[in-house]
Fold each of these.
Amino acid sequence: MRISGKWRGHPARRLGSGQDARATARWSMPGLGLFKGLAVTARNMIQSYYRKDRMTTVQYPEERAPISPNFRNFPFLCYDGDDPVAGLRCTACSICEKECPPQCIYIVLDRDENGKSLKRPKVFDIDISVCMNCGICAEVCPFDSIYMDGQYEMSTTDRFGGLLLGLDRLAKSADYHMQLRPLEASEVAARRKAEEDKKRAAQAAKEAKAKADKQAKEKAAAEAPAATIGKGEPA
Amino acid sequence: MISDLSRFSLSSSSSAAPVLDDDQLLHVSLGPQHPSTHGVFRVNVALDGETVVSLKPVFGYLHRNHEKIAENATYLSSMPYTDRLDYICPLSNNWAYANAVEKLAGIEVPERAQYMRVILAELTRLINHTAFAGFILGDMGAWGSALMYAFRERELILDLFEDLTGARMMANFMRFGGCRNDLPAGWANKVSELVNGYGAFLDEMEDLLIGNEILLARTRDIGALPKDVLINGGITGPMLRAAGVNYDIRKVEPYGIYQRFDFRIPLGGTGDCYDRIMIRFLEMRESLKILRQALDQLPEGPFVHPKAKIRNFKPPVGEAYARVEGPKGELGFHLLSDGSANPYRYRVRPPSFINLTLLEDMCLGLDLADVVVILGSIDIVLGEVDR
Amino acid sequence: MSLLDMAYGGPSLWAPEWLPRLPQRVVEMLLQHYDTPEWLVSLAGFAVAAATVVAVFLSAFALLSLIERKTLARIQNRLGPNRAGWFGILQPVADGIKMLTKEDIVPAKAEWFLHLAAPVLIVVPAMLALGVIPYGREWVPVRLELGLLFFFAVGTLTEMAVFMAGWASGSKFPMLGAMRAISQMVSYELPLILSALGVIMVTGSLSLPDIVAKQEGLHWNVLTPWGLSAALVFFIASIAEANRCPFDLPEGESEIVAGHMTEYSGFKYALFFMGEYLGLFAISGLFITLFLGGWQAPLPGLTVIPTWLWFFAKLVVVIFSHLWIRGTFPRVRIDQLMRFAWLCLIPMALLTIPAAGIWVLIGGGLLGWLVTVPLLLIPWVVLTTIHNRRLAPQTRTYTFAD
């Protein structure tokens, strides 16, 4: 089968060239098409011995295919510093629980003896047999707390408990996040640092202002007693 | 064969008056487990010797209540589910749904996001048609060579998707008002390289397929239907264009920024299986052209509308139907909103399902082996047929 | 047979040419040392020779099952089995263990004796056919005057066994599959035999060693125009006889089940495959004998390499072509298959008879080429045009709309 039509380089080399109004597939010598097919497979076979793009097999588990740093699998919770309980960024606001499409997240807020919220989760379970790796939880989190992990070798023999990840398996440090997704993690770290600095500066300014106010008040009080003694008011 | 229109009746086969009694026919159920790769799909065929007398498709084995789930979920939550409709080309489904919601809520999409969407949609068309080229030869019993070549190239594009969206197939990438994140550094260059190299792969597949006498004998002059039957049956996509009907939504009702690109619509002559295969190859070439233009013109800017909401998204009361030219045909989403965060009615127009309705008419009078080839040439995905 | 060969008085037992006869010679010498009667010695020698052939080809079958998978894998840009042993060399062993440990299911409605006999009857004729092929100058298991006729006669037993398998299974799908298989095999038997007729005419003998002896040096039959045409026809017909892709309807796609082999499990299934592969070896061996010069080396200087090694090298090439074709082409449909056999292959096979006759009359050479080539080429073009009416010179035009 000979294909006619002018060709001008990639990508339209044969059928459907750039300027032609028609592409034709014309019949030619019988049997020739079969030989062309044989030539293609022979070429592929021979090239599979020395060209990497013709032999793309990655022999797992001896080798592992490289995955993109953006690859998302199941979520994890981020904590700052070394303590996974004290440094956990999650405040159990339950936004991710509400937004999760298959509803695979289960959160219980930690309260103290008076019922006041401690702003951290007592229970945070993700059922990864339900999770569909959409990443919406990571998108909606306002506290930079939940991100998508890249681990995929998570098989277990326990069908129910092994696939229910609790806080102990979900909490991973911010260093891990930095290792996994350097770009995203450094951007988050920079933003959080800037916010921290701004908060600290605002706090310092407020304290300075309160101190100045107190000093002004004391000064005013020190000058006032002479005026009030005549009225019988105690200073 | 095509001129005998009386055989192509759209009514059920029982009224087509088969000459033989029922017990002289051999009833075969090409059961839900197929050696071909289309998914769980059953065909009840009644054969007279080797010829098909009646054919009834049975599907629903992959029904997952997609539309009902969407009624109870927010608009954003449905987005990952649309990936799983036609899982061979997930980003087209995403775009169709995003289009519908944007039409409903009147959201504008910035320029860069439009270009990104076009690039991703055309890459999706490439992966779909490449996979099709592999599948059709697998259906015909070619022991998987073409399938392996096709999937080898498909993996390159899927790697690009993984770089950008985080997942190879279930991308969940479009948002209402743009895309989920911006292109990583160097991604556009990688796409350029791939586009430049793709032509060589297409040439190789054409060498393997086009002149192959066995393929010609298996696919010529089967499965053709007259144009008016196809139009009345609601067929869209490469099946319709292979019959010569000039209907491509990217030209007829352009969405996004398709009117800015210079590309043409390939049209076939007869509409048989061979034409359908060739049309898809030609469409792949046109997609490469669109990709080059889009990559050249890609502007800087925001990748999503600045006021786009992810949470608490409540579109105004109303309805909208938006459609895109998916690789399989016209993929449409019809949304009915009552002002709350969940849609009142969410309906998918699945091209595979509607293209499948004419299967019996295409197969009457042909051999059983032809049924498999025709089914392959319609290019169905059961995730879309059953939702 | 053994006495006749001993009368040749060849060089030492250990010379490469004589190596394949070593087991037979050793046994015969041992028995003669102990003064056993002549008929027993020849019988024992014959049994050992047959056992050698069977052992060689059974191990070749095991090796081929692995090589086929690895070759197909390389064609498809992937590695084949490489987990069972270094390079996957123990994969046939693993497959054999798997087949042996499977439950043997015989359907209730099946004829159990025929069900059992069918796989055996597929393997045995293939082995019988392997017995007449000359593998080397000194290595012909059975020297028959009517070797070629014996080969074809025994080959048709396989077809009967296929039908027996289908009928004895007792259900309709194997029956239909078997009917298709047998119609395919019977249709392709004719071009097979007809294309061999040219060779018989030129050689003047049905004996396979004589056919090989006639193809000395580069006078291989394939290098003549009638031989090339006959070889092509024979090769295509042999693919169909061996039920291999692109003619593997009995194996795949017949209503999506495995045709006549549907109701077989475990070792009987393995026997079917063994019979199929041994049949492939046999018919490839015959192809080499008839057309590719058998054990003859192409150039006189290369006769240092023992002749049986030449034979096996050619066998490797032919088998590789079978694998290559399997990895490339889709399957043909049953009616296209029959039409191809009856309308295309049989006329071409019939044409080799006048072509071979003219060749012998003219005595070969340039004039022979000039006369026979058009005689074969023009009908080929005409036939494929008529036969491929569906592929008629129709130009498919694809227009582009804006």
Amino acid sequence: MASTVARRPVQIELSGVTKRFTTPSGSMFTALRAIDLVVGAGKFCAVVGPTGCGKSTTLTMVAGLDRPSTGTVSVGGQGVDGITAGISFMFQADALMPWKTVLGNVALGPVFRGRPRKEALSQARDWVRRVGLAGFEEHHPHQLSGGMRKRVSLAAALINEPSILLMDEPFGALDVQTKAIMSNELLGLWEQTRPSVIFVTHDLEEAIALADQVVVMTAGPGTVKAVYDIDLARPRGAVQEIRFDSRFLELHHQIWASLREEVEAAYARTARGGRS
Amino acid sequence: MSEPAGRSGAISVISSQTEAGDTADVHHAVRRRKVLVWAARLATLVVVIGGWQLLTSAKIVDRFFWGQPSGIAAQLNDWVRHGTAYGSIWLQVWTTFKEAVLGFVFGVIAGVIVGVLLGQFRFFSDVLSPYIKIANAIPRIVLGSLFTVALGLGIAAKVSLAAVLVFFVVFFNAFQGVREVDRNLLNNARVLGASRGAITRHVVIPSALTWIIASLHVAFGLAIIGAIVGEFLGAQRGLGLVIATAQNNFNPNGVFAAMFIIAVLALTAEGLIGLLERRLLSWRPPSSVEASPA
């Protein structure tokens, strides 16, 4: 059966991507300008940048939920047109159906792809167990903690064995300890199937600890400022400990110098905007 | 909490005893409050009904116009024993109930279908929105006259009127419910590969259900109003006809007695809708089931 064979990871390519939105007042707003970015097949790419620099917009265009105004997005050599096949998306806010149980939520992927219900449920049961939620299958999302809901989202995103996983600040709302645990689990699961990942975050430490490649974006309109290769060995082990690795600190220092300018620029702009 | 320091063993024994005493006290207080509330409710009923009875007996209020509780009870008793002018009282109740339920069912089905469709297709909703506003501003109860002329004295006119009243309430809620569906949930379903039909079935309808069910409480009341008004306007049987006859005969007790029966019907239906709500929306956290949007 096709599903038992893991999908081959694919390369993601953005070239000259610009995205403009029309504001309600009728003027144009440029969210992204001339983005060029290549994420190699099976690579983990983290995107950092100041608030409002269009990081999330980039993800929606890779997913095919939105189209670039100019430029092209291609996945595995094919231009994106409509929803990209073999993709999973983990949103910043909970995207769980509150009326479905944990099992029902995780089973949505296979159900939407037309799998028989029974097969979908047994697959879901397996994934619920893999994210450590065995025994919670019949709970509803409101009965779970924030961290547990994220695990459900993770299982729901990975059950289709995506070739691409897009994550938009998935752990942004979690407390520091839960975030560290979730990061470790994400790395463990990612290393099993190795999809290509674009991981948007505000947290530079998280980005370096997880990724092969950290992309720094400029303050809006967003464009790629610099790309840093993270040459820390894999498997990385616990993200809490790698923070003390001397190479980690070196990279952190280097990337932060670049990121700080953009954060300050974005802050100055909002502060000015607030005053005028 | 406020025990003096020292001799901690003895103190902890004492405090655990007082704690047990406290819980018993709390239970007792809760029960006492419940009893008090029910006693006050009963007293309210006695004062209102008794006051009404006394005032009319003492001729301070004219029972010819305002009826009398004992008269209403006698009227109900008479209807049950001897029936009304149009056959047994149960036939009248059944007729009105049937009209209201059929109108309710048709109105709800049409309201949900049209609401869900228009909510999803932006173009149609943009085209139709001014007409919907106009239709909503019209006093639709007047359509009853039209239906009575067009559809005759039978059940069809009443069912139509009830259905029209129900339709608009349910439609607006379904429409709004569809519009309020969380964007994240929609995008998530699309990325997971859901077809348009699957999105409607798994995301849109369950999400709108909270709104739709909230509207059903109001809708059944309107269905009964539709049925009764339809019967006022022209009918061969039904509680509305019984009320109209009582009015023509200067029999306020008859009006009140029919009102009482209708209230029992409405409360029963309300209870059933409440059960349905609890069943369909069992996934919601308990607190929000209590405070459902009206």
